[in-house]
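Researcher: Let's try something more involved. This one mixes different molecule types, so please make sure each is placed in the same coordinate frame as the others.
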Amino acid sequence: MKARIPPSVGLAARVLVGAVLVYAGATKAAGPSEEFAIVIGSYDILPREMVLTAATFLPWVELLIGWSLIFGLRLRAAAAAAGALLAFFLIALVLVQLKGIQLPNCGCLGDAVHFTPLQACLFDTCLSALCWLSWKSAPARLSLDSWVEGGYTEHANGQE
Amino acid sequence: MDRLPRLAVCALLVLAACAGSVLLARGSRKPFSSNAPRYRTLGPADAKVTVVEFSDFECPACRVAEAPLRALLKLYDGKIRLVFKHFPLENMHRWARGGAIAAECAGRQGKFWEYHHALYDHQEEWPSGKYEERLAAYAKEAALDEAAWQACRKDPAVNEAVSADHHDGTNAWVGSTPTFFINGKRFVGALQLSERGTPFVDKELKK
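Model: All components are placed in one shared frame. Result:
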């Protein structure tokens, strides 16, 4: 049996996750990548020579996924990418805890908001749940996908 | 309109939104001054390479960065200029502004670098309850005129000079210390300075 997501819930979920990713990406992309590189480096996951490159591109990946979710462009792919990104962040946070590394800042939302590792894990888990709702809500009426495909079909969303 | 052109329009819309949100977050970048009083500089004034350091005397990472910075200055002795700017992170370091003011007053007696080294070398002892006692001891070791140094510490103009440096750092988007600008290129922390600073200075000197 197919679970049905009310369109308004799907829309709210994808706009919320999208807005968080856009905020996180924009604040990091607007600032110096060398600052964000310090945060990524403190996770001790990536090779040192890759840290600055990751710090330069990761915020733009967050932005692309965030806006794709908000506009509903390639909604399923965007929701899956957001889920994968959040899963990667969660794994990184757990690894840091296991290694006993004290993070000065999780780097989740730039300099403005500082989460403890536990708060960051809870936040990412909630966002992951919203990603799942976004994925389930596709295809959506209020989305660019619907315009690209030339119209929204109730049947495709399981609404009969 | 066909599907493909519509998809292209949507992709452009998303890209424009990405760029727009970054521009919005960036706001208007403000210029920052890399000037400092002569006593807070080292090296020739007409050097081809200028290193501007934003630092906090209570910050352990700044202390760690002292070794690679001194090595860099030694390696390019006579070809490089260092400008020290105060950037006390007061939300984390309670005693940092006081340390900056004390060093600034030592500088006004021509002993900034002696006091600077004393604050970093004894970083584990002065940011504490023995703060006044320790700062006075370093002033004595640096052979400062103690009465003039104490009077200077109470001068609001000195506090304002530290605030002006902090303001410059904020305009330069300094988020953590130490942050170095080598001919305008940013390096944050000891690792970035030691790994990428030397090749960058080499490149700048060859220009």
